[in-house]
Design goal:
Two copies of one chain form a homodimer. The first copy, chain A, has seven helices and three strands, in the order H-H-H-E-E-H-E-H-H-H. The interface between A and B is large, with 82 and 82 residues. The first copy, chain A, binds a DNA duplex through helix 2 and helix 3.
DNA sequence: TTAGACATATATCATTTTGATATATATCGA
DNA sequence: TCGATATATATCAAAATGATATATGTCTAA
């Protein structure tokens, strides 16, 4: 699913500026989809060219001149159709696991620092998600929050459970930066 | 961390062609990092220009003409440094959760199909990961596999546990495609 | 009261990455 | 020996990131 489509979806919730959309990504979609201004504004522009959204410039208010986008009937229809057609999957890019994959090349204190950092990372994400539960949400949105909490705590707990063991093993192992090849099957 | 850096890391394991690197991504890094040919080949080219890798054309073998890349000492050093400096985090893009977020706009049978699809998706990923455990691995690599299994099963089990409930609730609720606004706080 | 920090708001752009396509040879099984 | 699949490289338009620039509004502590 392209970002354009997702913007359409967010405009189902309420009329919004590009800035508002960015906010929604950071607040409500934070744990499963990111987006940058560099893609949001061009998306909105294209969407308007295609007739899926309309925009008007606000005259009053604290920020006159801001551009508010509204979904058109065509855009609504298009979103429903796209949504029905997207097959569910997920993509993960974990710098943390890259780090762990090559952890034999790190020094033990560095590895320790990374593990602690990651545990904190998950903790802060969890706190953020849990705070969302204070508000009322549709069943679907509630599902995404609870799903996120479930996944995040599983990962945090895994680190908690294995950190000491990993660190102990790591301290005892030899290499660390040496140029020798890994004891790994070529086609692993 | 850029793909270039990661390619360097994979060349720590063994000399490889662009194709081999793609294979490693699909087999060993599958559950936490993807990469396409369109970025792998250019990365390798740049890496060579920068002196981080060297390449030679194979003359014999079943595929004469293939270009084998080797890490240079400089490349090795560079990788260790980059690795120590990357702060651990992870990025998730879940089309599945996008679907769930807007699930009130889907028809119940469609939602049901998506949920089943996702459960299968996690199952097949799990099978793949579990098969990796047959081989011997460094502690770090073993960690990435077990971490992946842990996270994947948490997510699969969450769907299993809540699928019926979600579907029941969904069937009872009204909207589905209607243009009415969501009962959601604007700044959720 | 006012300077500085932070929030709101939009825009642009080089660089990176994706995803699709094209091409060619090798291998393996029916 | 035909066709499917695996090995191998390359290119490119389109999408997305991440950084930067700009401007105004609001809140707070000296």
């Amino acid at each position: 699913m392209q970002l354009k489509t997702l913007c359409l979806g967010l405009l189902e919730i309420s009329d919004a500026t590009g800035y508002d959309i960015k906010q929604m990504f950071e607040r409500a979609l934070n744990h499963f989809h990111a987006a940058s201004y560099g893609s949001i504004y061009p998306s909105l522009k294209q969407l308007e060219e295609e007739g899926h959204v309309r925009s008007r410039i606000e005259t009053g208010g604290p920020h006159p001149g801001k551009r508010l986008f509204t979904l058109t009937e065509q855009g609504h229809e298009h979103f429903i159709k796209s949504l029905s057609e997207t097959e569910p999957d997920e993509t993960i890019r974990s710098e943390f696991l890259v780090l762990m994959f090559f952890s034999h090349l790190l020094e033990t204190p560095v590895l320790q620092e990374k593990l602690e950092h990651m545990e904190q990372y998950y903790d802060s994400k969890l706190t953020m998600l849990e705070s969302l539960l204070d508000q009322e949400h549709s069943a679907g949105i509630r599902f995404t929050i609870e799903f996120g909490i479930n996944a995040l705590s599983a990962k945090r707990d895994f680190i908690r459970k294995h950190r000491e063991e990993i660190l102990r093993e790591h301290k005892e192992s030899p290499d660390c930066g040496s140029r020798q090849k890994l004891p790994v099957e070529k086609h692993l």
